[in-house]
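Hey, quick one: can you model this chain's 3D structure?
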Amino acid sequence: MQAERHAVEPDPPGWTRRAIAPAGVSIAHNPAWPALEGANVSYQTFGRHNGAVSVQWGDEATMAHYLAHTGLGSGGHRRVIDEDRRIDIRGLAARRVRLRVISTAHGHGIDPDGRVVGTAPSDNETIFVAVAFEIGESPVRVGYRLPASERAEFEPLLERVLGGVRPL
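Sure thing. Here's the predicted structure for all 168 residues.
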C-alpha cells in the first residue's frame, strides 16, 4: 500500500527530478542540498549531523556489500538490523534493509545492561536504510544515512524520496 501511494505522489515541493544515467534511475533532488559525485556514487548531504541520501551503482552496490561494510568499521559500535524484506521498485524486485548503528564509544559510561549512559540515545545512533535492485544486470542501491537526532525532521521526507526512485 505504501509503495502504491509513493507511485502517484509527486516529488516533494521545491525538489526536481534528477536522472542518474550510469545507474539507470532517477531520484528526487533537493537543489538546496549539496550534491556530490564520486566513482559509481551520487549523493546529497543534509542536516546538521552528516546525513546523506545516495545512489550507488556497480559491483559495490549490492546488498551483500552493504551489509558487509555498513556500521562495522570500528570498535565501539553495535549494529541492529530492524528490517530486511523484499519490495517492488516500479516492477523491479528489490531488497530493503534498515539498520541502526549505535556508538558505545561516547557518553560517560556503560550501565550493567550494556547501554551507554550520559548521552541521549539519539546522540549516538545513526539510521541507515538501503534498497538494492538490478537495472539490467547492473547492481544499484539507493538509500540514506540519518542521525537519529534528526529523525523527526527528515525521515518522512527521505522515505518519500526512496519511494519515488524510478528506472529510466
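One thing worth noting: The longest helix spans residues 151-163.
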